[in-house]
Write a structure and sequence with these properties.
Order of helices and strands: HH
Number of helices: 2
Largest sheet: none
Shape: elongated
Helix content: 55-70%
Number of strands: 0
Strand content: under 5%
Oligomer: single chain
Structural class: mainly alpha
């Protein structure tokens, strides 16, 4: 799992071999919340880049497109994570006790 590395992306590959700096390992909820915050920041950055191109006409179209693609790819990735979580929840709910 540690050989999976996302370079230049919004979602850093989780480090499972080292605990967090506080001595405790991060929980799944904390990691998910952090990822959502990073994706939200990428969306905000993309909106600002578009505004620079549209309003100020000082921004680079290339930088705006790169910011948009980063935000899009990150959003799609987190949607796949959400879908897997929902699928796992539904599978657990189908289990008979």
């Amino acid at each position: 799992m540690n050989d999976l590395v996302i370079r230049g992306g919004a979602l850093p590959a989780p480090r499972l071999d080292k605990p967090a700096a506080t001595g405790e390992a991060k929980g799944f909820g904390t990691m998910l919340t952090d990822a959502i915050k990073e994706i939200n920041q990428l969306q905000i950055d993309a909106d600002q880049a578009i505004s620079k191109v549209q309003i100020d006409e000082a921004g680079s179209i290339h930088e705006a497109m790169i910011a948009l693609e980063k935000a899009d790819v990150s959003f799609r990735a987190i949607m796949q994570v959400r879908n897997k979580i929902i699928e796992a929840y539904q599978e657990i709910m189908r289990m008979q006790v």
